[in-house]
Amino acid sequence: MDHGPGAIAPLFTTCTRCGAEAGYHAGVCVIDGVLHWSVEGGCEVCGAGEVACGRGEVPGHVSAALIAAHGEVVLRAEPLPGTAAARAFKTVREVFGVPLAEVRGRLRALAAEGERGTEPETALLAARLREGGFAVTLEAREPPTGEKRFVPTSPGRSWPANPAAHGLPVLTAAPARVGRGRGREVPLVPGSLPEELREPLADYLAAGRVLVVAAGLAPDPLAEGPYEYVRVGRATDGTWAWELAWEQWVRRRGCAPPEEFVRHVEARGFVPPPGTNG
After folding, report:
1. At CA 95, angle to CA 54 and CA 84, rounded to 5?
2. Nearest 10 degrees: CA dihedral of 98, 99, 102, 106?
3. CA 70 to chain CA centroid, nearest Å
4. C-alpha dist (Å) from residue 44 to 21, 95, 161
5. CA of 204: how far to CAs of 175, 201, 265, 271, in Å?
6. Containing H/E element for 63?
7. How far is CA 48 from CA 9, 113, 158, 162, 231, in A?
8. Among 15, 35, 230, 231, which one is least packed by beta carbons within 10 Å?
9. Among 34-48, 56-70, 227-241, which stretch is predicted with the lowest mean pLDDT?
10. How far apart are alpha carbons 161 and 228 in whole angstroms?
11. Residue 122 is inside which H or E element, if any?
12. Which of 20-34, 91-105, 263-277 has the lowest mean pLDDT?
């Protein structure tokens, strides 16, 4: 796994539950050429807490928090002298997703005004443009102020207690075959598992042999209120391994694990093998 640039910053807003100041940590990093972002924290007065994360485009309030703390980076770029026009056009279309009719204008803007963003965002953009035959310069600017800044967590609303209900992706490691690592990231989708599978699948997950477990709990990223938590750790049935929280996400939320894992459990008749906790 290739880890690229990353940055974290405080994000202050007003708690929607009690009105007090709530503090969060917002973070962005580049992993295997993809932007990953996260926000976690909560209110110390009433205990309301939230966790959210995702990949790809970084939400505006996360970028704003990092820029408030570290300043923005301005990227300017233009094709190298030996770069063919067709290659430059292709790069701009692929990197920015613009139609052919807008490429010339985007090229002019790249050379003049440039693109603004956080250090991880512009570093990833710079790498993609350089691969496409562009000369790139990065200008780091100072933060706008040294004082604590309250950053609106989302236009027109405060940070939601349930990120998934507001269109924010919640990703987690999927169950994976033993020996194949932690498992690829998959979205948690409440209600995606047929009702009749919830209890037997959750019971199977709960019966797994615990490999490692944390002493505390973590806020449930799918929680509808401030005091819902999930277990932290991993379990196995000898063939597959999974995060302990999957039992609660299956039972409480009806989140479907990958189909291959569900078929594996169904083939066993939802009966855990000898040697597990079942």
Report:
1. 160
2. 30
3. 21
4. 8, 41, 15
5. 13, 5, 8, 7
6. helix 60-70
7. 20, 41, 13, 11, 18
8. 231
9. 34-48
10. 11
11. helix 119-131
12. 20-34
Per the prediction, the chain carries an average pLDDT of: 81
Q: CA 147: distance to chain centroid? A: 28
Unique residue bearing structure tokens 């780091």 = 140
Dihedral (C-alpha) 109, 111, 116, 118: value to the nearest 10 degrees? 150
The amino acid occupying position 172 is T
Residue 19 identity: G
The per-residue pLDDT for range 190-199, each reduced to its tens digit, is: 899 999 999 9
pTM of the model: 0.52
> What single-letter amino acid sits at 257?
P
Collapsing DSSP to helix, strand or coil, 261 comes out as: helix
